[in-house]
Structure formats: C-alpha cells, structure tokens
Specification:
single chain, alpha+beta, GH92 mannosidase fold, Immunoglobulin-like, nine-stranded antiparallel beta sheet, six-stranded antiparallel beta sheet, 18 helices, 38 strands, 28% strand, peptide-N4-(N-acetyl-beta-glucosaminyl)asparagine amidase activity, glycosidase, GH92 family glycosyl hydrolase, carbohydrate binding, Ig-like_fold
Length: 752
C-alpha cells in the first residue's frame, strides 16, 4: 500500500518496504463511489479503522465509506472491497503511476477481457531508485458483474474502449470498472505481477489464488508467516508490549529480499546489501539457512548471466552502488564460514574472486587506497556513494572475506594475496591526525600524492533532524564521520586496537566517543562497533552492555532511529534484546546480556538455542555471571559451532558493572618518580613539570596533576588541576608558591 500524505489513501500493488526512498508503488487501485476521479488528489481519501498484520491489512476509506482489505501471496494478492449500497461503485486502475504520483511508464498498454472480467497491462518503467529501466506487467481479475468498463487517460473515461497504448511517460492512463453494489456490496479483486510478461502474471494469478475465497487466502498467508515468525519463540514471562515490538522486528527482518526466481529467475530487491550484510543475513543464517543458500545460488546465477553481482539488485537489474565496498562478497564468505548447506562453494568462490579482481576501484588497486575515484578495475563505474575512506576500508573488508574463503578452500596463494590486501586500510591511517579533544590517530582521506588533509575529527558539521554529523561525513566516509569510520576495520581488530593505544585505551577512547555522540550506532557504519568492546581483544562487555542499553533507552517507542533499511535495524534490535551479536566474517558472537526472561531460537540445524535472563529488568543491564549448558562461561563470546549444536545460555543480570569476562587488576601502578621542575622558559613566564613514566601490570591510562598553596594537601577533585597522557605539564608562573603532586592512574581506576 502507498499513501499520499498522512490523510490520504489508495492501493499500490508492489512496494519495497522500510528503506527510506521511493521505489515501485506501481499499478494503483482506487475503489470509489460516485463520479470516478482519475487524479490522485481528487480520489484520495482520509482513512480510519486501520489494522495491519503480516498476512492482512484493512482500512476504511472515509470519503467513500468503503472497507478495503488485502492479503498477499508470493507474486499476487487478493483484495476485498466492501462498498456501501449504491449503483455507482467503481474501481480505478492507474497503469502508469508510481509512488509519489509520478508517471513512470515509458511505454506500455492496458487491455480488457470483458468476457473473463480480466484487465491486463504494463510495459517499460523508469524512475526507480535503481536508474535502469525495467519491464513489469499485471493481470487482474474480479468476481462482480460489470455495470460499465473501459479505459481512461487525460481526456477522460472511454466507455467500452477495451485497449489503450501509450509511448510517453508524461500521461496517466489506465482502466476502470463500475459495479452495481445495491444488493451485493462485496467485490473481490485478485492481481498478480510479473517482471517478464502478462502471460507470466496470468500464470501466477491462476496458480497462487484459485477462486475468490478471501478468508482461505488470508489463513494460508497466516500459516506462512506463523512458520517464519515461529523460528524465534519468546518465553511466557515476556510482556505483551515487548512481544509486539519483537515480533514486528522479526517480521520486518524477513520481508526483503524477495524470491522472484520463478519470475525473472533470481532473488530481488536488495536495497542494498551494504544495509543487510552485518545483521540481516547473519540472523537468517540462524533461523532460515535455506533462504541464505537460495540467495547465494541466485548470486551465482546472476554472475553467470551478467558477469557481475552488485550490492544493489533491484527490479531484476544490477546497480553497481558502492556504499562501502562490494559487500556481497562479505555475505558469501560469511555463509561459507558457517558451513551453510546447499551451495557449490567452489563455484561461489570463483565469483567472489572474480569480483575481487574486477570490482575494486582503480586507485585502490594501484595506490593501495581510494581517493574518491569511482571507476572499477574493469572500467565499470560505482555510484557517487563510493567515498574515499569508506571505500578503502570497505574493499579491505571484502579482501579479508575473500582471504578467509580462500584459506578454507585450500587456495593458499590467493589467501596470502588477499589477506595482505586487507591491510590496505592502514594506508588511510594517519597517526599524526589529532582531534581538538586530544585523541590521536584516525582513518581519513588521502590524496593520490600520499598527503593527508589537516582537519579536526571532532568538528561538528550540524544536525539534520535525524543524526549529528561530524567532520568527514559524506565527503570522506559514506554516512559516517572520521571518528565513526575509524572504528570500521573490525575484521582486523587486533591491529586496530594496537593502533588506538592498546585494549585499555581503545575501550576508554570508544566509550568517550560514544558519550560525545561522535558515533551514531543507530546507522550501519557503526553497527559492529559496540560489540568490539566484548571481544577477546578488548574484554569490556560491561561497556557493550552500557551502550546497548543507551540505544534501547533512547529509542523506546515503536519507531526506528532512521530508515529501517530492509530489516537491518530490526535484526539489530533482535540481537540486542536477545543478548548476542554476530561479527560477520568470523564465527564469533559477542555477548552483552539479554533483556528478555527467555527466548528460544529454533535453528535451521534442527537444534534449539535457548537464552535465559535471571533478574532481567530495565535497571539490570549488566551481566553478573553467565553459564553455557550449565557450565560457567568466563568469556563474552560464543562461536557458531557452539550455537548451531544447540544449548542454553543463561545470564544473571544486575544493575552495576561486574568483573564478568573482564581482566581483573587489583595492583597499584608504580609511583611517579623523578618529579622535577624545568625553568628553561622562565623568561617567557613558563615552567614545566617533568617526571619518569610509571609502570603497571596492565597499562597507564593517564597522569593526574594536583596543586595547592599548602605543602601537605589532599588529592581530591578540588586540588585536581588536569590529567594528561604525557610525562610533562607546562604552566604559567604566578606570584603564589605552589606545590604539585602527580599520580599515575591505570584503566581500572587505580591510582598511585
């Protein structure tokens, strides 16, 4: 269904859901009474009594007093319109229109088979998000007797004119049918679409919906969705509101992509795989692995037919988009690592390798980093979305995926080549770039001559009503700033942690960045970022829990923080609520604690993965302890192999951070020694304190400098002057006698 503004209503037969842009909305159906109106604004109606489920939607059209209902099938749907008692009811079909009211049909026709109560049509369309033209057709059949039927265009209704053809995309046209509903107010209309031809649409209509039994079709659709939604089962203690949100998110996760293999031959509607590779496909690997296999087999088929596989494949057309890199490779490699059955992995590897050899940008291949160039090695073009740094990191992630697949299949030479290439993200690491708030080392764009621009990663660009934007947003990273993008090489986490000063500084810095709003973890570039805190390399699951709770607390209503993005937001919500998160390209799932008393994943393997939460509440967000199959779990990680075999993960939750799965340190840092005063710049009115580095069994976080006019003074917030990571502190000379003390502090908050 599509609607015009918030107060208007009419049907569009096909629509791409939840991704924030206008797509499809073709073949408009408008039930009316009285004089037939062909203009959107004239025939639109306010609505009431609206109700929606996965298998059924109904609404009342107030303007006409018509109850409209629909229930879907794979390529078709059946509508039931209940008109008021009158002799002047009608149904208008606009063949040329798409969502937004635009004329999208470049050339096509509408045809009426009066004897069989059937209307067919379609043609070549444009103006979709994918800029390629595409063909689409429909076949519509109704069960009521005809009072009047014909076609229409800008010149009005054409009674009994049963065929109309147009070759421009400037004019609305279509068909109409009038009914006498004085005695029988119910009109059933079934329609099917095809991207191939009208005959294929007729075939779907006949095969999928036999007759006009609306209730039968509704129940069958319900059964289909119950099977899908039943893959995850919430425990009886979960409250009704939470169940509503959870299962709505589960529904959204399973809407797209769409299986059109019986139509044009492949799965379709990837808007885009940049959105879904981190969360949607990893979720489906657990619950619907056969669907993941079907998608990968569809990728293989497309590659054989088209010579490429793009992240954005819509209306049966490839669209080389490039929001990150070529992320379809990540999906294939991740499924291979999970051992998803039903795929020829040797064949799949050849297309992944083929993509790697052809669909890296030219300067990524030659220089080792992307400068903003959109031309691929083979001469094909990415869209404007291929931004310098996000492309470098994205392609490096893709190379890592290829390497992991090559290693598993025994292609050692390929493995060495692509694992080395995956390090190219380091070519955009500028160790000298420092933010205005004192953090050093970031990923940002690099010119072809090797130079970096001098910018402040913490510079605020503005707020667009959805998110805060920081330096680098849009011109350096796609939908991310420099702070956010610098955490994106999660596939090479050991190196990233090292570059950011080690695991303690990494956690401290990330916690700071999240607190400042530098990282929008409600958008795809940062989806994985929080869970690096729960990794073996960082060991701070308490901070992961903290920021998961911040997300869930901020977005408490029934909406989303931005575009839902084809299940990307929904599947992330499901993982957050359940208490675990996948790291695509590995077999690791990081743990942060559940928000549910009990949830069971009925896995594609046939086993059950049960998660239980003891003492779950809005306040108890931190894991106090955990067990796996009854045995103490001391790591904030499970593997794919553990989960697929089934088992029970039990969390004990509490309101305060605990030492669970963390490194414990009870030792003091060493004393600060050799505290001296440097007066070499006394003539400039400047003095400096210098001292030797302290040592710790973990890592020194900072040095706290205290000062007072009294020789013997306490170290507290009143006497604290500043904190620094350096072993020197400069200050201006004053007329007062001042005493200084310096203490070392480690990342566990222990001072000495």
């Amino acid at each position: 269904m599509s609607s015009w503004k918030s107060c208007s209503w009419f049907w569009s037969v096909i629509y791409a859901r939840f991704w924030g842009k206008k797509s499809y909305g073709n073949f408009l159906l408008s039930p009316q009474t009285g004089e037939i109106k062909t203009n959107d604004r004239d025939h639109a109606s306010s609505i009431s009594e609206e109700k929606g489920q996965a298998n059924y939607y109904t609404v009342k059209l107030d303007k006409y007093d018509i109850k409209a209902e629909v229930t879907p099938n794979q390529h078709s749907a059946i509508y039931r319109f209940t008109y008021p008692k009158n002799a002047d009811s009608s149904l208008l079909i606009d063949v040329s229109r798409k969502i937004g009211g635009e004329v999208a049909l470049k050339s096509g026709s509408v045809n009426i088979d009066k004897e069989n109560k059937m209307i067919t049509g379609g043609g070549t369309f444009s103006k979709n998000w994918n800029p390629s033209n595409w063909n689409m057709y429909f076949a519509l059949e109704f069960d009521q007797d005809i009072a009047e039927i014909g076609t229409w265009d800008k010149n009005g209704l054409k009674n009994n004119v049963l065929s109309l053809e147009k070759s421009s995309n400037k004019e609305h046209f279509g068909a109409y049918v009038k009914f006498d509903t004085s005695s029988d107010q119910e009109v059933n209309v079934k329609i099917a679409i095809s991207f191939v031809n009208v005959d294929k649409a007729k075939e779907f209509l006949n095969n999928e919906i036999s007759g006009f039994d609306f209730e039968k079709e509704k129940e069958e659709a319900k059964d289909v969705w119950n099977e899908v939604l039943g893959k995850v089962e919430l425990g009886s203690e979960v409250d009704k509101e939470t169940k509503g949100k959870f299962y709505t998110a589960l529904y959204h996760t399973n809407v797209q992509p769409r299986d059109r293999s019986e139509d044009h031959g492949t799965w379709d509607d990837y808007y885009t795989l940049w959105d879904s590779w981190r969360t949607v496909f990893p979720f489906l690997q657990l619950t619907r692995p056969e669907m993941v296999a079907a998608n990968i087999n569809s990728f293989i088929k497309r590659y054989k037919e088209n010579g490429k596989i793009s992240d954005a494949y819509i209306q049966g057309k490839e669209y080389v988009c490039g929001q990150g890199g070529n992320d379809i490779e990540n999906i294939i490699a991740d499924a291979y690592l999970k051992g998803i059955e039903g795929v020829d992995w040797q064949e799949a590897y050849q297309i992944v390798k083929g993509e790697a050899e052809n669909y890296r940008s030219k300067n990524y291949a030659t220089l080792g980093w992307n400068t903003g160039e959109t031309e691929a090695i083979n001469g094909d073009k990415y869209s404007w979305r291929l931004r310098p740094s996000s492309a470098t990191v994205g392609f490096a992630y893709n190379d890592y995926a290829v390497a992991m697949m090559a290693k598993g299949l025994g292609y050692q030479e390929d493995y060495e080549k692509y694992i080395q290439s995956s390090k190219k993200w380091l070519n955009n690491w500028d160790e000298n770039l420092e933010s205005s708030d004192g953090y050093k080392g970031f990923i940002h764009k690099r010119a072809a001559n090797g130079s970096y621009a001098t910018v402040d990663p913490s510079h605020f660009l503005g707020y667009d009503g959805t998110e805060m934007k920081w330096q680098g947003y849009g011109d350096d990273f796609y939908e991310a700033g420099i702070w956010e993008g610098s955490y994106s090489p999660t596939f090479d986490l050991p190196t990233l942690v090292e570059k950011m000063g080690g695991k303690y500084e990494y956690a401290n810095r990330l916690d700071y960045a999240l607190g400042k709003g530098y990282i929008n973890f409600a958008n795809e570039p940062a989806f994985q970022t929080i869970w690096t805190l729960a990794s073996d390399e960082v060991q701070r699951p308490d901070l992961a829990s903290k920021w998961v709770d911040a997300y869930l607390s901020k977005y408490t209503d029934v909406g989303y923080p931005g575009d839902e993005d084809n299940g990307a937001m929904s599947s992330m919500y499901l993982f957050m609520m359940s208490g675990f998160f996948p790291m695509s390209g590995t077999n690791n799932y990081y743990l942060h604690g559940t928000r549910l008393p009990e949830v069971t994943y009925h896995l594609g393997s046939g086993n059950d993965f049960v998660i239980k939460g003891i003492n779950v509440s809005d306040e108890n967000i931190y894991v106090q302890s955990a067990t796996w199959n009854g045995q103490p779990l001391t790591s904030s990680k499970l593997t794919w192999n553990q989960i697929k075999e089934g088992g029970t993960l039990e969390y004990v939750m509490g309101s305060q951070p605990s030492d669970w799965a963390r490194e414990v340190d009870n030792e003091n840092p060493s004393n600060v020694t050799e505290l001296t005063l440097d007066d070499s710049k006394l003539n400039e009115g400047i003095l400096a304190l210098n001292w030797n580095k302290a040592t710790d069994n973990t890592q020194i976080k900072q040095y706290n400098i205290y000062s007072s006019t009294q020789e013997n003074f306490e170290l507290n917030d009143k006497t604290l002057v500043t904190s620094t990571k350096d072993i020197t502190y400069t200050f201006n000379v004053s007329n007062e006698v001042k005493y200084f003390k310096v203490e070392a502090e480690d990342y566990f908050g222990i001072n000495h």
